[in-house]
Design brief:
Elements lengths: L6 E5 L1 H14 L2 E6 L10 H9 L5 E6 L7 H13 L2 E4 L7 E4 L3 E5 L8 E5 L2 H17 L1 E2 H24 L3 H8 L3 H15 L7 H7 L4
Parallel strand pairs: 2-3, 3-4
Antiparallel strand pairs: 1-7, 2-5, 4-8, 5-6, 6-7
């Protein structure tokens, strides 16, 4: 893609990948931050497969929110990429969905709520360096996939039942008894699940879980 300016607005994933695919192929340093796997790679499976074949020749870093580990298939995919050489970390803080290519180009995802999502492709050095600085800060604060997933195994197994209890309004004491745990332990699991989903209250659980395909 030849940029006619240092900031380009692109509408829709098809146009994004059609116009930037060669940048991904040429890049040797790729940094990606996303809430889940659907913002970027899974929208174009062929590009994902191509990227996986090239992992040994590239420095690839991927930063995700904990929700990606709630789904067993997604978790396995991340471990697969890690085995190919990608560095993957999980962070609990809110992140801007961004891709950085060779520290020279930044691609930022726009509002997810719009009918057609927009993406900004930025090559202005000052802006790219600022975005890179934010990414590096979030990267350093995040935990490695292996470390975070080791703590996450229990909640992933219990998540479907806890989600059912939360969305049906089941009382904590009854839900805890059904899972064979104390009320405080159950409430701690619920708090961990809220963090994983990226929500701040139980009222948001149903909508967010459906967005992630967990319900």
């Amino acid at each position: 893609m030849e940029l006619v300016s240092d900031i380009s607005l692109i509408r829709g994933e098809e146009e994004l990948f059609d116009r930037t695919a060669h940048l991904f192929v040429a890049a040797t340093d790729i940094a990606c931050a996303a809430d889940d796997l659907y913002t970027w790679a899974l929208s174009r499976p062929s590009l994902t497969r191509q990227g996986e074949r090239l992992v040994p020749d590239k420095r690839i870093r991927k930063l995700y929110r904990p929700g990606v580990l709630l789904n067993e298939q997604t978790a396995q995919h991340l471990h697969h990429l890690s085995g190919l050489g990608a560095q993957i970390r999980i962070g609990t803080e809110e992140i801007n969905e961004t891709i950085l290519l060779d520290e020279r180009v930044a691609i930022m995802a726009g509002d997810e709520g719009k009918a057609v999502r927009s993406y900004s492709v930025i090559s202005r050095p000052e802006l790219v360096q600022g975005i890179l600085s934010l990414f590096e800060t979030a990267w350093q604060a995040a935990a490695t996939l292996e470390t975070f997933d080791a703590r996450f195994a229990d909640i992933r197994m219990e998540a479907p039942q806890i989600l059912e209890f939360l969305t049906t309004g089941c009382k904590d004491d009854k839900a805890a008894k059904s899972l064979g745990m104390g009320v405080r332990t159950y409430q701690r699991r619920v708090s961990e699940l809220l963090v994983a989903l990226g929500v701040t209250s139980r009222l948001q659980v149903d909508a967010r879980a459906r967005e992630l395909g967990l319900l």
